[in-house]
Amino acid sequence: MKLKLKKHWTTGWTISRKLNMAFLRDTDKLNKFKIALSNKSQAFHDLLNGEGTTMESNWKGIKEAISHEILGHKKHHHKEWITVDTLDKIQERRNKKTAINTSRTRAEKAKAQTEYTEVNKQVKRSIRIDKRKYLEDLATKAEKAAREGNMRELYDITKKLSGNHSKPERPVKSKEDKVITSIEEQRNRWVEHFKELLNRPAPLNPLNIEAAPTDLPISVGPPTWPSDKSRVAKHQDQTTSQQRH
Length: 245
Fold this sequence. Notes:
Layout: H1 27-39, H2 41-48, H3 55-70, H4 84-101, H5 106-148, H6 151-162, E1 172-173, E2 179-180, H7 183-198, H8 228-244
Helix pairs in contact: 1-3, 4-5, 5-6
């Protein structure tokens, strides 16, 4: 048996990872970020005294290092209305899930499962609260835009509330798989397409569907409504039957 190592192809470039800027909405993390910047100010001035260094390059390196340390990178795509507190709960739920998978005994797994269930309830509850607040804020902004006559903002907010996102149009192509740009040629292509689709020749072997041997006892006449006398008599019969029982 021959074993071969799997080849790992590289494209020669790396994908830039986005910083988790949502954490800056949290006051505690924002203050921590500012404190870290102020603490690095002295180190920044010391770096300027070195050889072959510039202010821009040193400041960029310090800023990136602090951003990676305090904010971290985005690992998942979250909605814009999810708050930092909910993101912390989501991370806690992720940690509980890892604890379940790494449990060695049944007791540890049962305990981790109970903790995960509780945290999962908190996450769902927090997401509902965040979304409700987000929709209420959008409704307030829509009312303000309507009062001020800002139709553009009102349209954007209404589109967000309705969740109506139009899909991008696909190009019309000819039979030769070439894109058609002219409006008139596109219409002619659609006409040609539906003519070929709908005006097909009759089948060579048509289906032989035999008629029913006897007519079914179904009334095909116009519908009739019962008269007032028959409705009263039917109601009296039902009342008498209920009294007997």
